[in-house]
Amino acid sequence: MKMIIGLGNPGKQYEMTRHNVGFHVIDELAKQMDAPAMQLKFNGAYTIIHRPEGKVLLVKPLTYMNLSGECVAPLMDYYDIHPDEIVVIYDDLDLAPGKLRLRQKGSAGGHNGMKSLIAHLGTDTFNRIRIGVGRPTGGMKVSDYVLSSFSKEEQPLLDEMVKKSASACLDWLKSPFLDVMNHYNKA
């Protein structure tokens, strides 16, 4: 079984914010894979899809970003999923809007959702897809920026990155993450 986790915040007020790009990818994957309805358990929303490559668990932690590990770690324990069988999708301030980077390990880079995951999983070695949201300008606080919506100019870039991230996840179901990473990081 493989697990794909999209980070974000629950609630209508956060739905279209930069911090919720991970949720958007999970929604896109659920649509593309014709997933069953999400279940609410383990402080998250998740569904299981049966595919020729094996079972896939799509997860949206509902703990709010900063506590994402409180949802993911119990799900991994319950389904006996190893850290190398997950991919985490999240927003990244250090990448420009429209940029995508895949990694197999690394620090949280200041991202509180990743800090929570690393703390709860006890490792920083797990697959991840970073979606660029850029940095705030004009003195805007980072917290206000990540909880703001994309501009009309940025929206097409977001849509493209959501589809590209979903494609990378689907490719990972058939190929080693390193191969997928090398392919998508070239672009």
Automatic annotation (TrEMBL):
<comment type="function">
    <text>Hydrolyzes ribosome-free peptidyl-tRNAs (with 1 or more amino acids incorporated), which drop off the ribosome during protein synthesis, or as a result of ribosome stalling.</text>
</comment>
<comment type="similarity">
    <text>Belongs to the PTH family.</text>
</comment>
<feature type="binding site">
    <location>
        <position position="14"/>
    </location>
    <ligand>
        <name>tRNA</name>
    </ligand>
</feature>
<dbReference type="InterPro" id="IPR001328">
    <property type="entry name" value="Pept_tRNA_hydro"/>
</dbReference>
<dbReference type="GO" id="GO:0004045">
    <property type="term" value="F:peptidyl-tRNA hydrolase activity"/>
</dbReference>
<keyword id="KW-0963">Cytoplasm</keyword>
<feature type="binding site">
    <location>
        <position position="66"/>
    </location>
    <ligand>
        <name>tRNA</name>
    </ligand>
</feature>
<dbReference type="InterPro" id="IPR036416">
    <property type="entry name" value="Pept_tRNA_hydro_sf"/>
</dbReference>
<feature type="binding site">
    <location>
        <position position="64"/>
    </location>
    <ligand>
        <name>tRNA</name>
    </ligand>
</feature>
<dbReference type="InterPro" id="IPR018171">
    <property type="entry name" value="Pept_tRNA_hydro_CS"/>
</dbReference>
<feature type="active site" description="Proton acceptor">
    <location>
        <position position="19"/>
    </location>
</feature>
<feature type="binding site">
    <location>
        <position position="112"/>
    </location>
    <ligand>
        <name>tRNA</name>
    </ligand>
</feature>
<comment type="subunit">
    <text>Monomer.</text>
</comment>
<protein>
    <recommendedName>
        <fullName>Peptidyl-tRNA hydrolase</fullName>
        <ecNumber>3.1.1.29</ecNumber>
    </recommendedName>
</protein>
<feature type="site" description="Discriminates between blocked and unblocked aminoacyl-tRNA">
    <location>
        <position position="9"/>
    </location>
</feature>
<keyword id="KW-0694">RNA-binding</keyword>
<keyword id="KW-0378">Hydrolase</keyword>
<dbReference type="Pfam" id="PF01195">
    <property type="entry name" value="Pept_tRNA_hydro"/>
</dbReference>
<keyword id="KW-0820">tRNA-binding</keyword>
<comment type="function">
    <text>Catalyzes the release of premature peptidyl moieties from peptidyl-tRNA molecules trapped in stalled 50S ribosomal subunits, and thus maintains levels of free tRNAs and 50S ribosomes.</text>
</comment>
<feature type="site" description="Stabilizes the basic form of H active site to accept a proton">
    <location>
        <position position="91"/>
    </location>
</feature>
